[in-house]
Design a protein that fits this description.
The structure is a homodimer of 337-residue chains. The first copy, chain A, has helices spanning 9-16, 20-28, 35-48, 54-61, 80-96, 110-122, 140-146, 172-185, 205-220, 234-245, 259-273, 288-293, 302-318, and strands at residues 66-71, 100-105, 128-131, 150-154, 166-170, 191-195, 227-229, 253-256, 280-284, 296-299, 326-329, 332-334. Chain A is of the alpha/beta class. In chain A, strand 8 (253-256), helix 11 (259-273) and strand 9 form a beta-alpha-beta unit. In chain A, helix 5 packs across helix 13 (302-318), helix 8 packs parallel to helix 9 and helix 10 (234-245) packs across helix 11 (259-273). The longest helix of chain A has 17 residues, at 80-96. Chain A is elongated and about 90 Å long. Strand 2 of chain A pairs antiparallel with strand 2 (100-105) of chain B, so a sheet runs across the interface.
């Protein structure tokens, strides 16, 4: 267990035969120090194994060298995996950029979340936030801007296209268009959509996913598009699809806005098919549930989104008054193995 | 965007009519300050909205007020959800105890992980680590102890029962015994086990889960116990169970060491059953996949584990030389809805 005392600014200074201030200058303002002196100090740092303390560095640079992200309370759990991958991507990209990733537990509501973030940033625990699960009536971005908080959203500023903040999102319309094209290639001719209530009424994740389906189905000119809507709950989705499959214009395939909806749709399809082949269901998010059921599903490139969020934030730290930037990443269709 | 300048130690001191040192004493050593002075300073802090800077507090207390946990690279994804819940629980329990939660990306191997943790702790970014995914041949605990790093493991010190560190784990044997009892109550009489290779050979998560099955099956005296083993992969599990179900002593139920194994077992059971009823499969981890397949599964109380890890760490911070403590938490059996 015995260890040498950890090296300090003072012991490095003594080893190099310079003042403590000179060591500090080498670390923070190396150009102010003569080459020969700088080399001697750097040698002493290496030999002693000195590592500047993070709190000291934070005080000196007035930067936390950390970003914060919300640890989500569990919902139905099916989409949970997307966040696991997001956390890993942020931690990895953060590490490459000298940024630590802090988790804060999901607060009760948006106001409490803004207060939590404000606390983290103004006490110097984090320099910026990655905002998740944005929506059209989201009040967090405006409050964060008012507080002068640096942030990047995973999710578009739905309905606020002129919003002056950085964001990264996955192009949901591309995802559902890939699903429809795959079904057309597989010989399906009546491809319905199962979305969430209110899809299409205003800009939202759901509207975006519905749009990709509608565009390709409309372009293929295969008759009036059929759709159903359900809360993001497997039992509700199953009931909605059971009704859809009982109609005279029952589809032969269903593109769903989530894997939770796809699970319900798949159950309804199995029940309606009896001994025959069920209608084909395609999900969204490529969760293990879709894989376990043998369903194709649209996969969000979550790792890429995480890396881009970190890129935008590090760019923002370097150039705080840079114009806001939004990046849309295309997903892929993952077929069952 | 306009805001008043944030309050500082100096502005609080001026408002209270005391020295900067007195404000600092009120914050860090309140008993050293006369009651009347302390009240005046606390009023000034409240009125000014002063929040001590985290880096300053870290330097003053020589504590990071943060713990670190690994952001897992994805494996098969099915068990991913358990970690989502763990992260949320840590962030929530940490917040209640004034501890932030830092994520570090899963390093290449154990040596790299120990180096990462060492860096986090010795640069003052974290005070301690919550270690995940422990195993019998895990070299991390011994190295962390040698480095003098405070940590709590989620997972037992398999085969090192005298290990002097804190840990929390879920009692897997209780989990599988609940599964077997449920199956006996449901009229099953030949209950097999599907585990991982090497289960039972040395202390491990798998051996522990197998033991719970074996004890109850043995106690019920229903003939020679039948078991199969497979890597944690659905296709491999399906092949192992297909073989099992073709034997003369084929079981009428299978308790599995994971939901990934349960997925494979379920597929084999469906294939073997044809139009009849498939053998009953019970999983472990209560993931969305088990729920989607309609399988019972053992649920780990992850939120409780996270809170207990934080409890052990905060207790350790207060009493660094307290004896090591291990806590075993019983799981529950979650039936399909």
């Amino acid at each position: 267990m015995a260890q040498n005392d950890p090296a300090t600014l003072d012991s490095v200074a003594a080893r190099a035969g310079v003042s403590r201030q000179t060591v500090s200058n080498v670390l923070r303002h190396p150009t102010r120090v003569a080459d020969a002196t700088r080399d001697r100090v750097l040698d002493a740092i290496r030999e002693s194994g000195y590592r500047p303390s993070l709190p000291a560095r934070q005080l000196a640079t007035r930067r936390a060298h950390a970003i914060a992200v919300r640890a989500e309370r569990q919902q139905d759990g099916i989409s949970g995996l997307v966040l696991d991958a997001f956390y890993h991507g942020l931690a990895e990209a953060g590490q490459h950029n000298g940024l630590r990733v802090l988790l804060y537990p999901q607060p009760e509501d948006e106001a409490a979340e803004v207060a939590t973030i404000d606390e983290l940033v103004h006490t110097g625990a984090a320099d910026a936030v990655v905002l998740t699960a944005t929506s059209a009536d989201d009040e967090r971005p405006a409050h964060l801007r008012d507080n002068g908080t640096t942030f990047c959203a995973f999710g578009r500023p739905w309905g606020h296209d002129d919003a002056p903040h950085d964001w990264v999102d996955v192009d949901g319309a591309v995802g559902t268009s890939l699903a429809v094209r795959h079904l057309l290639d597989s010989g399906r001719r009546s491809i319905a959509y199962l979305g969430w209530p209110g899809d299409g009424a205003e800009p939202s994740t759901g509207s975006d996913r519905r749009r990709g389906w509608l565009e390709v189905v409309g372009h293929a000119a295969l008759g009036a598009p059929v759709e159903a809507h359900s809360l993001n709950d497997a039992a509700a989705a199953q009931a909605a699809v059971a009704e859809l499959l009982g109609r005279p214009d029952a589809p032969d395939a269903i593109v769903c806005a989530s894997d939770t909806l796809a699970l319900g749709a798949h159950r309804a399809a199995l029940a309606a098919a009896g001994a025959g082949a069920p209608v084909t269901v395609v999900g969204f998010d490529a969760t293990p549930v879709a894989a376990a059921l043998g369903l194709a599903s649209v996969a969000q490139p979550i790792d890429q989104v995480a890396h881009l969020c970190i890129d935008l934030l590090t760019g923002r730290f370097e150039t705080p008054d840079r114009p806001a930037r939004g990046l849309l990443v295309p997903p892929v269709l993952r077929l069952p193995s």
